[in-house]
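Predict the holo structure. Ligand: copper (II) ion.
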Amino acid sequence: MTYAFARNAALPLRAGAGLVLVLCAALGAPAICLAADSPATAVDIKKFAFPKEITVAPGTKIIWTNRDETPHTVTSTDKSFASKGLDTDDKFEHTFTSEGDFSYTCTLHPFMTGVVHVRKR
Ligand SMILES: [Cu+2]
């Protein structure tokens, strides 16, 4: 069983997702399997801008990286997530578990805004 799980976990996340979930149900170890199955999306903060909009599936972890020489924050409008000040190449990550539209800003530069749309596919 352990061997079979390890093989599936090594597959690319999207291709392996369905198979891993089925296997997890069989193994009865959902916590481990959800961790192995969570997709991640990398996002750059650069030239004083976030990506205007990102659409991801529930359970996706977004990892922001500050590519500017100036500090930025990633702070949700509803305060459900907030980074510290991010220096150059610092990262902040947040996992979006429920569907919705999550707007965020940089508290140091309020003109910087972005929205994460979380949608089932
Ligand atoms: Cu900023």
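Residues 72, 106, 108-109, 112 surround copper (II) ion (CB under 6 Å). The chain has two domains: 2-37, 40-118.
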